[in-house]
From TrEMBL:
PROSITE patterns: APO. GO terms for molecular function: RNA binding. Pfam families: APO_RNA-bind. Residues 40-125, 213-298 form the APO domain. InterPro entries: APO_dom. It comes from the Eukaryota. Residues 1-20 form the signal peptide. It comes from Ensete ventricosum. This is APO domain-containing protein. Keywords: Signal.
Length: 320
């Protein structure tokens, strides 16, 4: 599965909240070990990662009443920075629609990878029907798809584990010697550039290839019609029978920005509830890269609210 290694594999961990986590497809919950507030190990983590999460009391997750809405922080992994979004791989996006009963006949792969495959990238494990004559459509109705062809068996990654789960850095030990400060900065620059370039590319591809997103949950489908697997659990509405509600996807549904608070000084005091209106937010990838030394891209500066002067807590109390 290494060929899907994201361009953005960063050897650092950031604190993230546990309550935002979603179940994966078919309701399998991923398990996380709680870290009792200990600082992340490793030199890089010590250098770049604030030792505690923020203290803004906006947790609405399970048990948050007992915590007075403080978050309960655990060590984050790559999948907390880049939220994994998977979709079914379709040999023929214009072929038969996936039914609930046939859903295991299809691989689940990162939605961005599926989009690239449909747009022409070839992976031997995930073949794609390449047509020589165009599909003829009348409105939304397919007049001529060149017939149905027999679809190849799914590849299914080892042990049926998801590719993204295999790539998760949670609990991984980074044996490599720590990077020098200048190498770290270069890596951060490269990562940020890659992130912006992938978002730009996906945005362009989505103009040509249709991507659907469920209006009730985080399911994404690359293809013209959505699918009929009844796995929508966001709202347990009996009347919908687990059916997804398909709409045209927007970029942030395919690549969730996963906004985090921007820390102007990672070594400064933790962010506080009283000052929250002075803080800015940016995508987690951007924040990690900036903390690792990357230059802040112009387009993210307004979100970081760098022009706002943050008062000290005493002052804020007087104002409030
Ligand atoms: Zn929380
Ligand atoms: Zn859904």
């Amino acid at each position: 599965g290494t060929r899907f290694l994201p361009l953005l594999l960063l050897p650092w961990l950031i604190p993230v909240e546990i309550n935002r986590r979603r179940s994966t497809v078919d309701g399998r919950f991923r398990r996380y070990r709680l870290v009792a507030g200990g600082p992340p190990s490793g030199q890089l983590a010590d250098r770049y990662i604030p030792p505690v999460g923020h203290q803004i009391q906006d947790c609405r997750g399970t048990g948050s009443e007992q915590r007075r809405s403080y978050h309960s922080w655990v060590k984050g992994s790559i999948n907390d920075v880049l939220i994994p979004i998977e979709s079914y791989h379709l040999f023929d996006p214009f072929g038969r629609r996936i039914k609930h009963e046939t859903r295991f006949d299809y691989d689940r792969i990162p939605a961005v990878v599926e989009l690239c495959i449909q747009a022409g990238v070839d992976f031997p494990e995930y073949p794609s029907r390449r047509r020589t004559s165009p599909i003829r459509m009348l409105g939304k109705k397919v007049i001529d798809r060149g017939g149905y062809v027999e679809e190849p068996k799914p590849h299914l990654s080892e042990n049926c584990r998801s590719l993204l789960a295999e790539l998760d850095t949670y609990g991984a030990h980074f044996e490599q010697p720590p990077l020098s400060a200048s190498d770290t900065r270069r890596l951060a620059e490269r990562t940020l550039k890659a992130y912006c370039s992938v978002r730009r590319g996906v945005r362009q591809l989505m103009k040509k290839y249709s991507v659907k997103a469920c209006g009730y949950c985080s399911e994404v489908h690359v293809g013209p019609w959505g699918h009929n697997a009844k796995l929508c659990g966001a709202f347990k509405h009996q009347w919908r029978d687990g059916k997804h509600g398909w709409q045209d996807a927007i970029l942030d549904e395919v690549i969730p920005p996963n906004y985090v608070w921007h820390l102007r000084d990672p070594h400064g005091p933790p962010l506080r509830t009283a000052l929250r209106r002075y803080y800015g937010k940016v995508p987690a990838v951007v924040e990690v890269c900036v903390q690792a030394g990357a230059v802040i891209p112009e387009s993210y500066k307004p979100m970081m609210r760098l022009d706002i002067i943050i008062p000290d807590t005493e002052e804020a109390r007087l104002v409030a």
